[in-house]
Specification:
Blueprint: E1 8-11, H1 15-34, H2 42-53, E2 62-63, E3 67-69, E4 75-77, E5 82-83, E6 87-90, E7 95-97, E8 102-103, E9 108-110, E10 112-113, E11 124-127, E12 130-132, E13 137-138, E14 143-145, E15 149-150, E16 155-156, E17 161-162, E18 170-173, E19 178-182
Parallel strand pairs: 2-5, 3-6, 4-7, 5-8, 6-9, 7-12, 8-13, 9-14, 12-15, 13-16, 14-17, 16-18
Antiparallel strand pairs: 1-11, 10-11, 18-19
Helix pairs in contact: 1-2
Length: 186
């Protein structure tokens, strides 16, 4: 079920939850094949990533396996996007990645979560979208949680946990990530 604010709420034991499980099984099959490839297999990696997302990625797209996802069909990537090794994208809420984005190794982009209430945690999965605008750099080991937008030209420092929107042209860092300083063109 899609809510007006683009939040998806999936209840256990529904047709939507069965579709979510099927999507995960499909993604695991595709990523298992993708993760057997090497740096020199860039054409095959792009083909499998295109199959995973359901749309052709640009020839400038570069991903270094391994890569993990719980769906894949809600990931959109622009031109000249680089995704380093060992990244995890949970895309139920939708992940939109703009042109010229660089994503470091061990980055987790997670749109999904669960209610805080103990009685509802296993009964409901919630997906909130993540938007990564043009020319963003997400450094090693950062975690981006659902419902945030990272503004154009911004940098997320290594190991940061982004829980709120990042304005354009800012360096953010920490847990939770906070603005450290503006980024000025040199």
């Amino acid at each position: 079920m899609m809510q007006n604010d683009r939040t998806k709420t999936i209840h256990r034991r529904t047709p939507e939850s069965a579709a979510m499980v099927a999507s995960t099984a499909r993604a695991m099959t595709i990523t298992a094949a993708l993760n057997r490839l090497t740096f020199s297999d860039a054409v095959e990696i792009r083909a499998l990533f295109s199959e995973l997302t359901g749309q052709q990625v640009d020839d400038s797209f570069l991903l270094l396996p391994p890569f993990y996802t719980a769906g894949g069909s809600e990931i959109r990537v622009g031109k000249n996007v680089f995704i380093n090794q060992n990244c995890t994208f949970y895309d139920l809420g939708g992940i939109d990645i703009g042109d010229e984005v660089m994503i470091g190794p061990n980055v987790s982009i997670i749109t999904t979560g669960h209610p805080l209430s103990p009685s509802q945690r296993r009964a409901v999965t919630i997906g909130n979208p993540i938007v990564i605008e043009r020319n963003v750099w997400i450094a090693t080991g950062a975690i981006i949680v659902g419902g945030v937008t990272i503004g154009e030209n911004s940098v997320v420092a290594a190991g940061s946990v982004v829980t709120k929107d990042v304005p354009p042209n800012m360096l953010v860092g920490g847990n939770p990530a906070r603005v450290i300083r503006p980024i000025e063109e040199e």
